[in-house]
């Protein structure tokens, strides 16, 4: 019945937003006003929160139209600085340094407090990076390099250089735990010349760069795609999307002994959850994963997701909560899921193109309940939120489609306290 009405809507294009939103559960909780909002820029990149400051790649309205980094005080929204050269993304913030990637791919180093451009050693290259104990571990192509923070501006030396056996086409930041650096890689299937798809998960000694162990999956097609990994001193966890038996994919979580690389256990979900934040270690005993509810209607948006805490030792389910909606574009902090959500503002074409009314939802991972929701941002397109230091920040861009466009004030940065 609903599909027939949707077809009628797509033909009429009038008054159908309510129908398109009819499967969404009613929300009766608090509606929270933003603590601050800066509408002087438009933002389509996820913000970064670090040491009381929020950094974001944004673009000004008018004037010199190129993306640059802006820094704002996290609590008040006061502008602190902006740089003056085109930037593609923020690679890493650590201590008093912020690593950027220019539009051409060249890395740059700024002072995080002042925005001052710092000299960067020319040998340093990175597509992703992380820092631990005064050392930066960066991935570029098939190379994994380790350099001290002190050496970044003074010389061209690195502590060690290692080759990742499978050159990644997508670089997730390395993870450092227990004296080990973990790197995940995927090299996709290529028909000419014939090259198998390969997925690899590698553990390197953090002091020497020696390869401790590796786990690899080589397939002619459909190698599992690594979506995230995490680790503590004793165990490493790998979260993947495996489409070898299902076009939609299954979520696979594997636990490895950190010392030997031996697989401890393997947990497969009924379907891969694209918005799952990966194997999160919320406490010392459990690891968080995601699944679809059982049954034929488990794929429906209003059935939500299952967030499951598994025992780190044996993958036994410790707890499970079901959210009221399939939230996407989420970030997890302090047991809460903060997600950018939206509903249909207006149906625009017979192909069901629609405009959005957007907001941020805060969901408890202990109960599955939506605890608060931001005010609606009409015709705003939100980034994935950033959460930390007691605040939630999201970037916003103006929705534009042919003659339909949102107001300028919906763009920019929006911030709310995490708890209410």
What does this structure look like?
The protein is mainly β and 420 residues long. It starts with a helix and ends with a strand. It is built from 2 helices and 37 strands. The model has no long low-confidence stretch (mean pLDDT 90).
Topology:
Layout: H1 2-12, H2 17-20, E1 31-32, E2 36-38, E3 41-43, E4 48-50, E5 53-60, E6 68-73, E7 79-82, E8 87-94, E9 97-102, E10 107-111, E11 117-118, E12 128-132, E13 135-140, E14 143-148, E15 160-163, E16 175-177, E17 180-187, E18 197-205, E19 211-219, E20 225-231, E21 235-242, E22 250-257, E23 263-268, E24 286-291, E25 306-311, E26 317-322, E27 330-333, E28 336-347, E29 354-364, E30 370-374, E31 377-378, E32 380-382, E33 386-388, E34 391-398, E35 400-401, E36 404-405, E37 412-417
Parallel strand pairs: 1-30
Antiparallel strand pairs: 2-37, 3-5, 4-5, 5-6, 6-7, 8-9, 9-10, 10-11, 12-13, 13-14, 14-15, 16-17, 17-18, 18-19, 20-21, 21-22, 22-23, 24-25, 25-26, 27-28, 28-29, 29-30, 29-31, 32-34, 33-34, 34-37, 35-36
Brief overview:
With 420 residues, this protein is mainly beta. Helices cover 4% and strands 49% of the residues.
Mean of all residue-level pLDDT scores:
90
The amount of beta strand, in percent, is: over 45%
Class from helix and strand fractions: mainly beta
Report the span from N to C terminus. Answer: 40 Å
- Which term fits the overall shape? globular
